[in-house]
Amino acid sequence: MFRFEIPAMVVLICLALLSCQTYSTGLQQSVARADETTAIAALHAIAVAEQTYSLSNGGNFGTLEQLSNAGYLDVRFNAANGGVKDYSLTINPKTQLAEGGASFTCNADPTNSGPQAGRHFYIDSTSQAIHVNPTQPATVSDPVY
To answer: Looking at residue 38, what is its pLDDT?
Structure first.
């Protein structure tokens, strides 16, 4: 009789460990989704800041540092590659002198990997649409969020 209790106990312990792992992965994904919300809000703030900056700078768009120094974004963004939560933000502005006129693209990419990593986001000067890619930096050709 004792022989059957040990395997049953082992099975119960294994089930408990598996449910803890599933719970832990779910928590990590929840944190990633919360970080994504912060990144999306940052992209919206950047789009508004870029439009405002453009009005007072001859139609040109700015870098994160320029937008922050001009007071359109807060100090979190005052770096070449600013960031919010577990996301790196990258802006690539083109000036009026560039072929096709002034424009900008902005990517928000997760700094973590694995289950706690979020998705990749993209926005540009042509629309307010945010594009998303689950595995690599997003582009204009990715689906809209």
So the answer is: 87
Query: What pTM was computed for the model?
Result: 0.75
d(CA 10, CA 12): 5
H helices present in 1-145, as ranges: 2-55, 64-69
Q: Is residue 129 within 8 Å of residue 115, measured between CB atoms?
A: no
pLDDT tens-digit profile of 23-74? 444 545 565 667 888 899 999 999 999 999 999 999 999 999 999 999 999 8
For 81, 114, 121, 124, 129, the CA distances from 145, given in Å and listed in that order, are 23, 21, 8, 14, 7
The full set of domain ranges for the chain reads 34-133
What is the rounded radius of gyration, in angstroms, for the C-alpha atoms of the chain? Answer: 22
Q: In what order do the strands lie in the sheet with 103-110?
A: 83-84, 87-94, 103-110, 120-124, 127-133
Pairing of β 120-124 and β 127-133: antiparallel
